[in-house]
Amino acid sequence: MFDPMGEVDRVLAAQVGWTWLDDHLLYACGVRAALRDGGTQALRPVATAIRTSPSEVCVGEAPGAWAVFRRPSPQPVAPAPVAPPVMPIAINTASAAVYASRGRYSARRAQTMQATAAYHQQRRAELTAVRLTWAAAQAAHYASAAAAAEQRRSMDARWIPEPAGSVTVTTDRFHLSNSHRSSPIPLADVERVELTRPDRLRCDFTDAAGTLHHLEIASPLAATMFLVAAHAHFPHHPQLLSGVWLPAGFEDRCAVVGKPCPRVR
């Protein structure tokens, strides 16, 4: 299989906006032509540090990043806010001193007025305490409801990125490696594959326990990964049959930079 890197006229390439991704797309075209004409036996092995079986051929290796569509790991639930205590309001119920020189009528009248004032003050204090307690309870309720809603939203499934690393594609699997883990994905376990962009691949696969996982891989090898998977298990994939996996006009751009593209669609 040809090596596109050494035959591209870089001066002309710069004039037509040729990028490193186009180099990888041109390489993917070579992979497609080799698989179509001679199967996996026609592929030229690429050097790799991962362990391979005797019948397994490494097709490519490049940097990559990926994300898994899942629910985030549960976080510790913060305790619900507690309504602040309402401090009791001290009521001054001391009776006004009645001078001995006043008459009995004046004393009773003064006592009645003092008792009435104390009663109204007590009622106002009680109403104030009730209002404060109600407001604190309502605030705690709304805060708790908002926290619960935010917790539910935070647990919705979404694309959760993992640390970037390297992506390897072989005739048997995709292999994702980063500083945390090394994850082989056998092509036989891939249930669905789609090239959403020239450098973006989405696939669904099942693990050993039968759990379905959704994965999005961003790598310059995305087109090559799609072609290898499609050749192995999706020979009637619409993107493969129609050729839309390759950007429109790519063959013409290849001719401009001095590298005719193999006929792959």
Describe this structure in words.
- With 265 residues, the chain is of the alpha+beta class.
- The protein has two domains: 4-72 and 158-256, Roll (PH-domain like), CATH 2.30.29; 80-154, no CATH class.
- The chain has six helices and eight strands, in the order ααβαβββββββααα.
- The chain has helices spanning 10-15, 20-38, 104-154, 222-233, 238-242, 250-256, and strands at residues 58-70, 158-161, 165-170, 173-177, 182-186, 190-197, 200-206, 212-218.
- Strands 1, 2, 3, 4, 5, 6, 7 and 8 form an eight-stranded antiparallel β-sheet that branches.
- The radius of gyration is 38 Å and the shape is elongated.
- The model is unreliable at 93-101 (pLDDT under 50).
Name the descriptors:
6 helices, single chain, 265 residues, 2 domains, alpha+beta
**Assembly level:** single chain
CATH class of the largest domain: Mainly Beta
- Ends: how far apart? 18 Å
Determine the number of helices (DSSP H or I, runs of at least 4 residues): 6
What is the molecular shape? elongated
- The CATH topology of the largest domain comes to PH-domain like
Cα-atom radius of gyration: 38 Å
SSE string: HHEHEEEEEEEHHH
Uncertain runs: 93-101
Give a short account of the largest sheet. 8 strands, antiparallel
DSSP strand count = 8
Per CATH, the architecture of the largest domain is Roll
**CATH homolog superfamily of the largest domain:** Pleckstrin-homology domain (PH domain)/Phosphotyrosine-binding domain (PTB)
Structural class: alpha+beta
What fraction strand? 15-25%
Q: What does the average pLDDT come to?
A: 85
| DSSP helix fraction | 25-40%
When the domains are counted, the total is 2
